[in-house]
Amino acid sequence: MPRILIVEDEAHLAEGLQFNLEAEGHDVVVAADGGAAVECLLQPEPRFDLVILDLMLPVLGGIEVLRRIRASGDYVPVLVLTAMGDAEDRVRGLEEGADDYLPKPFRLGELLARVRGLLRRRRWDGVSEPPGLEPAQIGEVTAHFDRLELDTPNGVVNLTTREAGLLRALVDSEGVAVSRGELLETVWGLRPDTRTRVVDSFVVRLRRYIEPDPSRPRHIVSVRGHGYRLVR
Ligand code: CA
User: Fold this and answer.
1) Could you tell me the domains of the chain?
2) Which residues make beta-bridge pairs with 28?
3) pLDDT, tens digit, for every residue of 122-162?
């Protein structure tokens, strides 16, 4: 049973989400502030399969919660809830490692669809590999896009859906420079002219997994003033 942590201080909203996610067969825990959320997430057991994180929280804000869980090396998928129309918050959430975002107020059906999308990697049975998800060899690393896993000389690394999406986009254009704007649009669904470091901060993460020496990248190469190019 997938375990979901809801981090939301508005009790009626948290209760409503909990009720509906439990009805979908999930095991749900609610944290009412950022401090409680970090405490839940930094415990070694039980692990969560997904975090639904409101950004406006007492004690510790959602961005800080996200920063702390990523700093601890935890790449659990995170769906961020942002105030309506706050594009800056949305982009900051992605920069700090959120996988997806949903502006408030949202429709329940939309939230449940995002949750299914983010949990898919955990439930993928691997019976057959869907088209376009063949494994890719990049240096000493094998990317399994169906399982969102990297086989590296140092062990298996779990990718978030956005990390895998970014790597997939680069692999699909192997040898060709892909612009930041194009990556923002195809991987994050953002306008290509959005001012954000999100592509670069995700590239830093991917390089940590893939490059033998991340400070001198050989596989995900910067193309000055443009974007990135993948070299196998
Ligand atoms: Ca709130």
Assistant:
1) 3-119 (3.40.50.2300), 136-230 (1.10.10.10)
2) 4
3) 444 343 344 457 899 999 999 998 888 899 999 999 888 78
Query: Can you list the residues of the chain whose pLDDT is less than 50?
Result: 122-131
Separation of CA 58 and ligand 1 centre (Å) = 8
Q: For residue 87, how far is its CA from the centre of ligand 1 (angstroms)?
A: 16
- 100-103 and 78-82 as β-strands: parallel, antiparallel, unpaired? parallel
Task: Compute the distance from residue 146 Cα to the ligand 1 centre, in Å.
Answer: 34
User: Tokens standing for 104?
Assistant: 């408030």
pTM value is 0.71
Q: CA-CA distance, 42 to 214, in Å (whole number)?
A: 26
For ligand 1, the distance from its centroid to the CA atom of residue 81, given in whole angstroms, is 9
- pLDDT value of position 97: 83
pLDDT in tens, 38-51: 999 998 888 899 99
**C-alpha 179 to ligand 1 mean position (Å):** 35
Q: Which two tokens stand for residue 47?
A: 């692990």
Closest CA to 80 of 52, 60, 61: 52
Å from CA of 97 to ligand 1 middle: 19
